[in-house]
Structures are given as structure tokens and as C-alpha cells.
Amino acid sequence: MADFIYVDNSNLFIEGKRVSAVVRGLAMNIYDAMTNRIIDYDYTISFGRLHEFVVGTDQTQIARAVLFGSRPPPNDSIWKYAKSAGFELVLEDRNIANKEKKIDTGIVSAMVRDAYKRADLAKDTLVLVAGDGDFVPAVRDLVDDGFRVEVIFWDHISKELKETASSFISLNEHLEFLRLKY
């Protein structure tokens, strides 16, 4: 039995800042935070704690743990912390308008490729740490083909993604555990 883990760093990070804003009383609820672009600027996710939470204590069960995100500026060392926490990094350049591109499709590509080339249908679990409805078609196809696809995200996940996955684990009650402690 092994797990294949795919993390959409930006999606997880930004939405965690929104959840924290609600918890701290900066926004009335998650929809207020989303609509009015309210975030907790002090909230940062610890890559080490994220890896610990998603992977658990038995790292021998992990076939692959991949963190997808945008390539940082040369003087930014944030990704070295993710790598030292145990994540394989897949970094993409931002487009000319400084927008993040290719992350969701990169995750889907890696998930599907690993599922059909590396995973054992009877034993392995594909774990998606993201909440975007754009993942629904890939997750639906994998589940329909007999793969177990677990989704881990904040409670305001796409309803359709939550319902399509084999199972869902909420991060909301783990907000403080995942917080980077300085």
C-alpha cells in the first residue's frame, strides 16, 4: 500500500489565510473573506507540519509527495523549506501578467500518469490537497476506474469535488497545527 500526494500550494496557502481571517474575526464568514478579499496576512502554513499531517508517521507508505507552485524570485528561499520537509517540487513560471499558470493541469497530469503507470489499483491511494472544481473531471474518471482518491482541503472546498472524491478530510480543525511557528 502506498500513497501518491499532490498539493496545490497556492490554493492551499491562500484559502488557509481566508480561513484564518474568519477564525480571527477579520471576516464574518468564509464567503465574506472570499468576496471582499480578506485574508490573514500573518498566517503561513508550515511545510513540515503539512507533510506530517498529509503523510502521517509512516513515510515508507509514501510513493510520491509533490508540491506544485510558482517559481519564486532567485532570492526567495521558501521552496527549500518545502523540499527539506520531504516534498518533491514542481515549479512553473508565472505568465507575462504575473498570473500562476499550469499548476492545476500539472497536478492532473501527474496524478493520472502516476495512477496508470505506478499505482496499484487495489492498494494505493491518490491524495489531492486542493479544493478547486477544475479537478472534478480527473477525480471522477479516476474514481470511476476504481482508484481511491482522497481530497484534503478547507471546508469551503468545491462541493462537487468533495462529493466526487472517495473521501474528504477537512483542514479547518487543523488550522493552528499547520501554522508556521516562528
Concise synopsis of the structure shown:
The chain is α/β, with parallel strands linked by helices and 182 residues long. Helix content is 39%, strand content 19%.
Describe it.
The model has no long low-confidence stretch (mean pLDDT 89). This protein has a six-stranded parallel sheet, sandwiched between helices. The chain has a single domain (3-9, 47-178), classed as Rossmann fold (3-Layer(aba) Sandwich). Strand 4 (125-129), helix 6 and strand 5 (148-153) form a beta-alpha-beta unit. The chain has helices spanning 9-23, 30-35, 47-55, 78-84, 103-117, 136-144, 159-164, 175-178; strands spanning 3-8, 62-70, 88-92, 125-129, 148-153, 167-170. The protein has eight helices and six strands. Helices cover 39% and strands 19% of the residues. It starts with a strand and ends with a helix. By secondary structure, the protein is an alpha/beta fold.
Oligomer: single chain
Q: Which CATH class?
A: Alpha Beta
By secondary-structure content and strand pairing, the structural class works out as: alpha/beta
How many distinct beta strands? 6
Shape assignment = globular
Indicate the low-confidence ranges by residue numbers.
Answer: none
Q: Whole-number radius of gyration?
A: 16 Å
* Number of self-contained structural domains: 1
Query: N-to-C SSE series?
Result: EHHHEHEHEHEHEH
For the record, the CATH architecture stands as: 3-Layer(aba) Sandwich
| Total DSSP helices | 8
Widest sheet: strand ordering: 3-2-1-4-5-6
